[in-house]
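Issue 218. Parser rejects a valid record. Input:
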Amino acid sequence: MIKVIGAGLAGSEAAWQLAQAGERVLLIEQKPHRFSPAHRDENFCELVCSNSLKSDDVFGNACGLLKEEMRRLGSLTMEAAQATRVPAGGALAVDRDRFSAYVTQKLRTHPNISIVCEEVKELPEAGIVATGPLTEGALYDAICTRFGGGLHFYDATAPVVTAESVDMTCAYTADRYGRGTGDYINCPLNKEEYGRFVGALLSAERVTLKAFEKREIFEGCMPVEVMASRGKDTLRFGTFKPVGLEDEAGRRPYAALQLRRENAEGTLLGLVGCQTNLKFGEQKRVFSLIPALKNAEFVRYGVMHRNTFLDSPRCLHADLSVKGAPALFFAGQITGVEGYVESAASGMLAGINCLLRLRGKETVVPEDTCVMGALARYVAAENRHFQPMNANYGILRAPDVRDKKEKKKQMAERALAEIGRICALLGKGE
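Output the parser choked on:
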């Protein structure tokens, strides 16, 4: 019997994949024996934030494309969402109570699934761990011990933009004092631009933290708006320091934001030192005041919340198995994927690969031409500054097409062709 720990989106999807393939599954969930600070409902797959699973546009949105990939692979999450959806324009939104109840009923009545309500305190040698970003207690300690402190805990993260959306006529490549190989893109601001940016930053609306998230913030994770509140020049002597960042003409800007690669291909760029607790719409408004980012496409906004996750590039293979423990898999947000759909997708892939390994077959990792494969490869790729990532076009291998609409269309067609290949390998009908 295969153990799956955690009945959130990832664990439920993993258990479903295994059970549908004919394997006996022991699904272990701590609710209602114990609730995390964010959970209230006894049902599985509780949606604790929004009831939206984001865009359902297959040919114009990466998360919409991921949903279609999952549908073709037989996703319980997508089945439940379709059965409980509510009107939301181009988004896939659900009645959260009916959605959770639907998944719970499906799992509780499946002949191959046994359910135990208890708190797991030890890390198993085999199975799937999908305990989410609020993993705590004895299991948290056990995971830290297993990976030598391999759990990361960030209070705040910075936004990420696509490289192609940065206006390079207002930016230049240079490392501070010339030490490096041109790894940073510098976005200069003059005195007036800097003043306007700081003013907007200080007046922008912030997210209200939940009680269990209100803790002392490390200086290294200080939100940029908090730093700015310490004085109008604080950022110029810190995150936006221009010293050593002269341009090709030898001119030093009044202030400069640096962008750093988020992936090996350089298609995604993080705003260095700009971890923030501003609301998402405010982030786009404020950071777009920086000239080089005036048309920036934000693929991930900064967040400030409790978010426990593995240093996955060090701990996991791209098939989501643990390095040095091939029978043990992790899935969901604890691996460093961000979002409801992304979590369920990683649970699906972990379930598929756990099954293959159990049957003595090679595991599968879809190519980075599809969203599921790109996410799996992202969490396992070497990355010294690893942070959680959601579905976006920036992590997919891009075709050589300039027109954005045509590019997205080709990416969708290529992704679904790759999923068709995976379906054929697994003997699943599309």
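Fixed in the parser; the record now loads. Confidence is low (pLDDT under 50) at residues 215-220.
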